[in-house]
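Worked example 3 (structure in, sequence out).
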């Protein structure tokens, strides 16, 4: 991520782009770099607010072409690069006279309907309303409250003949067609299926679906479409469909300006959250420290992600533990998952594709994945791969349709494997349960456990130690890793609440188990030879499990920040992390590098959400 702005405004046509740009203050073309090239004509400027001396920072973007296929990569790249708090789609649309829309009127999306989803039967197209998405409620409310008065010059508004544009808020039909003929049978079927439609356009459903993907991955991106009617295909004065292009070209410049004017006025009135510049200015010193941590966190993430090129094997996977080893499914899934969580670095997308290809090719016949290729399936490795490929399937990669089809097929098979595993909770370890439910924890907002999941959660609840915390499997000694994983699962699914005594006691146990400066140490006994056992080591992955609780707690408990500080300070010069402390002692474990680095990236991205 290069920088953060308050608002992203996406336009499609040249006229729309320049109309918005005229309203922005201090809006030069954004200087790209080798790592983050300016791929969508980005300019970054300001829109002053009415309430204070502050201003909203705005990035303006434009896709390569019109249509759903091009709007989605443009929004994905813009959000990944600039991390906006809000996303607006601004431009022109075809208004519907039957519902009161006239040329130049402002059109605001309340509901966005992908009208091309449906069924062909009985010699006609039958549209379905399933592919409908509601825009952000708070932004809809602000649009309802907007008292729009054009700020354009009189000579720019001649076409309106003294009429003030009205604001219409309602359902927008979105597809991949320019509609000039309302007598065409398909169009008749579409309008009959949803008579409340106020406008038709070509990008909104792709745009809102893209922002929903970001929300499913933990990044809130409220969306609203604001357009102006450049043509009215069903107007009684329209003699035939050939007039559509002439009318649209005549009104396009003015409609683009009105849409831009209305969008800027709504932003200037004040969005639900104020400008970032004001929020930073008003932060107390502790919050300023968080800002410093965020910058440091992003730098560590970017540096670590570059190390994966050293770990990839010729078959496309990632080495199991050390760079010279064969590829592992667990490790590859861990890296794929870490790279796809926000913030996403566009420079890693080629690697992401190869990791997904590797995992699809290594799925076992039973639907699961092994820890290491050509071995039996593991519930934990399968859950990791399931989560990683599900994250990939939610990315907008129009050039990877064949791979996405194979991924969807693989995901269908793995669901049967996971369901069969869940049916036998008595044989599953805490790690098995945790990783098999990882998709829900990271990607989905599910809070009500299914009938299959509930017995697993009850088993976890039953294994809690009387004095607090959860034990290592097969023991009665509290385990930091299992306590952290159990808390995350039970809090996520609602079997525990943050203020429950059980949760407070468990967190106190975690805090008490902390080392003075470097987090948690655990004893791992390993037989080296008869009569010789490996010594206590620092288990970095344990620190990750405990720090990842911040995803569900939405905060770092007292003392956890020092573990975060230790985590960033222990990164090696090349950007990687190891599982154990460096040591020349041959009796120590061989320091794993590949998957600890990906797990640490995941943890830093979890913490990044809070900063």
């Amino acid at each position: 991520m290069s920088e953060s702005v308050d608002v992203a405004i996406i336009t499609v046509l040249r006229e729309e782009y320049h109309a918005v740009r005229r309203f922005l203050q201090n809006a030069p073309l954004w200087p790209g770099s080798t790592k983050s090239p300016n791929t969508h004509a980005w300019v970054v400027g300001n829109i002053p607010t009415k309430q204070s001396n502050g201003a909203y920072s705005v990035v303006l973007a434009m896709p390569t072409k019109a249509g759903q296929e091009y709007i989605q990569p443009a929004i994905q790249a813009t959000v990944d690069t600039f991390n906006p708090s809000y996303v607006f789609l601004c431009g022109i649309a075809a208004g519907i006279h039957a519902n009161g829309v006239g040329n130049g009127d402002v059109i605001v999306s309340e509901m966005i309907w992908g009208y091309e989803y449906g069924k062909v039967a009985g010699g006609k197209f039958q549209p379905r309303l399933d592919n409908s998405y509601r825009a952000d409620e708070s932004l809809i409310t602000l649009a309802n409250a907007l008292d729009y008065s054009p700020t354009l010059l009189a000579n720019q508004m001649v076409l309106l003949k003294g009429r003030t544009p009205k604001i219409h808020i309602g359902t927008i039909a979105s597809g991949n067609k320019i509609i000039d003929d309302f007598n065409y049978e398909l169009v008749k079927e579409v309008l009959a299926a949803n008579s409340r439609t106020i406008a038709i356009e070509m990008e909104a459903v792709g745009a809102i679906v893209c922002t929903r993907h970001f929300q499913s991955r933990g990044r809130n991106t409220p969306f609203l479409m604001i357009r102006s009617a450049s043509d009215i295909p069903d107007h009684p004065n329209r003699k035939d469909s050939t007039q559509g292009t002439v009318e649209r070209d005549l009104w396009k410049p003015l409609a683009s300006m009105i849409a831009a004017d209305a969008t800027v006025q709504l932003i200037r009135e004040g969005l639900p959250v104020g400008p970032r510049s004001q929020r930073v200015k008003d932060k107390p010193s502790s919050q300023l420290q968080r800002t410093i941590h965020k910058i440091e966190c992003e730098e560590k993430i970017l540096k670590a992600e570059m190390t994966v090129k050293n770990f990839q094997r010729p078959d496309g996977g990632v080495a199991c533990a050390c760079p010279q080893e064969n590829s592992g499914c667990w490790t590859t899934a861990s890296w794929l998952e870490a790279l796809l969580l926000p913030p996403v670095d566009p420079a890693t997308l080629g690697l992401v594709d190869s990791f997904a290809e590797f995992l699809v090719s290594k799925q076992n016949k039973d639907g699961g994945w092994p820890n290491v290729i050509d071995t039996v399936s593991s519930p934990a490795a399968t859950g990791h791969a399931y989560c990683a490929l599900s994250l990939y399937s939610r990315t907008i990669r129009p050039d990877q349709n064949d791979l996405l089809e194979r991924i969807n097929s693989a995901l269908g098979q793995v669901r049967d494997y996971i369901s069969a595993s869940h049916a036998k909770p008595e044989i599953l370890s805490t790690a098995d349960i945790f990783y098999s439910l990882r998709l829900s924890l990271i990607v989905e907002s599910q809070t009500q456990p299914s009938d299959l999941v509930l017995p697993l959660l009850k088993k976890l609840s039953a294994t809690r130690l009387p004095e607090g915390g959860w034990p290592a499997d097969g023991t009665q000694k509290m385990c930091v890793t299992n306590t952290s994983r159990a808390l995350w699962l039970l809090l996520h699914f609602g079997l525990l609440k943050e203020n429950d005594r059980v949760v407070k006691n468990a967190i106190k146990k975690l805090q008490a188990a902390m080392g003075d400066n470097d987090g948690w140490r655990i004893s791992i006994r390993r037989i080296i030879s008869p009569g010789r056992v490996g010594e206590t080591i620092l288990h970095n992955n344990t620190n990750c499990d405990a720090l990842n609780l911040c995803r569900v707690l939405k905060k770092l408990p007292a003392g956890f920040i020092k573990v975060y500080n230790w985590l960033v300070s222990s990164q090696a010069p090349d950007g990687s992390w190891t599982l154990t402390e460096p040591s020349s002692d041959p009796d120590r474990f061989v320091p794993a590098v590949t998957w600890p680095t990906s797990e640490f990236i995941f943890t830093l991205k979890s913490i990044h959400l809070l900063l």
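Notes: The longest strand covers residues 86-95. Residues 283-310+514-611 form one domain.
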